[in-house]
Amino acid sequence: MNTEEWGKIGFLPRMDPNRRECRRKAGNDGGGQPAGSGSAAVFIGWIQVMRNVASVGDHARLTWIDPAQVFLPAGRISPPLWRGVGLALFALVVLWPQAVQAQRYRLRDGRVLEQSAVVVRDGRMIISLGDGKAGAPGAEMTLPVSLVVELECPEPEELRSGRAALAAGRTGEALLEADSVVTRFAPFSRVPGSWWAEALVLRVRALAAAGRSEETRQGAAMLLAAAPRADQAALVRVAVAGIDLSESKTDAAGAVLIELLRDPVSVEVEVEGALLLGEVHLAGKEWEKALEAFLRIPAFHGRRVDLMPRVLLGSARAYRGLNDAGRVERTLLELNDRYPEAVQATTAKKEFLP
Length: 354
What we know:
The protein is mainly α. It is about 55% helix and about 10% strand. The protein is built from 15 helices and eight strands. It has helices at about 5-10, 40-50, 80-100, 155-165, 170-185, 195-210, 215-225, 230-245, 250-260, 265-285, 285-295, 295-300, 310-320, 325-340, 345-350, and strands spanning about 55, 60, 105, 110-115, 120, 125-130, 140-145, 150. Strands 4-3-8 form a three-stranded antiparallel sheet, with no helix packed on it. Strands 5-6-7 form a three-stranded antiparallel sheet, with no helix packed on it. The radius of gyration is 30 Å and the shape is elongated.
């Protein structure tokens, strides 16, 4: 069946030789079949198929493919071959997301266990070997979790939603999300591929934001004892510095923050550290240093608009210390105009208005 016949049944449009898509200027500008192999056209069709794949949660669906954008040369692909290609692509887009999301335990002897077949309890992995008969329990095998040398697991959704909640100031929600991941991965806290340390970082930061001093220090000590990555260690040290600052231990907080910001660090460490260092300098009446710390955020991380209310309030306080009334006024106007619902806008009204 040629392209014209496919068009009659509505699967492909009739190919107009005068359309630009159906011509290829490679020595002649005539209509008809473009130069190049059929495999190239098939490849173009595959690209268009993949561009129309929409992911929905843990599943996937195929959206309608605009056939006018897929060129299939006449006589090059038979209907059975096209059906085979379609089935292969369908299996790829439906099964691939599930395969990627699967969690596996890799054991010391090279065996790999699927998470769905394992129950972790009291430091043991309980593996079901089959259903029992006549109501009897199925056979089970028990292995110590110490046999696991690597986890194959995508980032838990709770971590992403927990970070978003923390950024929005919902510390309680962030704690719940962090705790669920900490508990799940606790038996594998030091196993490569575990998300325990990342979840504990989120927990410590949420505790610090909530002002829960002792729990923040305990969580930070637990993480640092587990030899975390440098960026994870830096984030919890910044959180503890924030607690020190809230308890008027400005010298201790300042020493940690200056040390951390001296070398290249992650964006999150830099922005949070700079804000806290600005507060440290305000407490020490070092107005110019405070202003320099606050203005690092718009200078180097201008897209972090979520931090601008804190930057503007801190900058206004620094300008006030420098007796620059004009800049104080302009900074407060920007804070009130752009972020009227922010906590810092309310604080500024109470602090600066007579």
